[in-house]
Amino acid sequence: MSVRAEFDAWAADGRDRGMEDRHWATAKHALGRMPVEPGDVVLDLGCGSGYAGRAIRDTYDAGTVYGLDGAPKMAENAASYTDDPQVGYVVGDFGSLPFATDAIDHVWSMEAFYYAADPHETLREIARVLRPGGTFYCGVNFYEENVHSHEWQDRISVEMTRWDAGEYREAFRDAGLHVAEQDTIPDREVDIPDESAFPTDDWERREDMVERYREFGTLLTVGVAE
Ligand SMILES: C[S@@+](CC[C@H](N)C(=O)[O-])C[C@H]1O[C@@H](n2cnc3c(N)ncnc32)[C@H](O)[C@@H]1O
């Protein structure tokens, strides 16, 4: 199934808002580190409900925020959640970004980058659209070290790239992005029940759930354009 078909179905089911709720616990910490200045142009890649771009507009007084998504229904939903004229949503693909060279100050992407058909091509596109010194904040929960995420590929028809932290750094550098920082952001908010509640529908063992959320969390890699 295509990105469009898969994620249009998610958006039609209201899963765009569900993702927002799940991702916010770690995304907000990464968003809080972005060096966005008033007036900056920011691009949210794979924006889903668009919550991150709207938060960037509201908290940093960014000039223009674009949310790009390959699923038209996602972009349509995102547009319906705001009447801010400086936030815009476009339908597009990670492989060919519809922006001029050096046009963007900062790129954000949460839980979306690994769906790129060719992640190296996407990184080159990000490096192209970023102005020199611009940053790419890339958050993923699906990565090699997070063994609890590996089964996600079985649940979705879109091919996913599962890199480890070192592969992210190497790929960023290959595309011309200096790696300014990389770490994991734990989710301290998700409710982890007492031992007596296990096994649950989703988790066999409490220690696995603790590891997934409190130890691994979101892998954040930050690149800076040359
Ligand atoms: C798991 S959702 C994450 C949405 C949002 N960033 C969040 O944190 O909730 C991934 C999003 O990326 C979009 N996406 C996946 N592959 C894409 C591609 N190749 N080009 C454009 N958008 C894509 C999907 O349509 C979907 O809305």
Automatic annotation (TrEMBL):
Alphabetical list of SUPFAM superfamilies matching this protein: S-adenosyl-L-methionine-dependent methyltransferases
Domain Methyltransferase type positions: 43-138
Any one Gene Ontology molecular-function term assigned to this protein's record: S-adenosylmethionine-dependent methyltransferase activity
CDD domains named in the record: AdoMet_MTases
Keywords of the record: Methyltransferase, Transferase, Ubiquinone
Protein name: Methylase involved in ubiquinone/menaquinone biosynthesis
One GO BP annotation of this record: methylation
Annotated organism of origin: Halovivax ruber (strain DSM 18193 / JCM 13892 / XH-70)
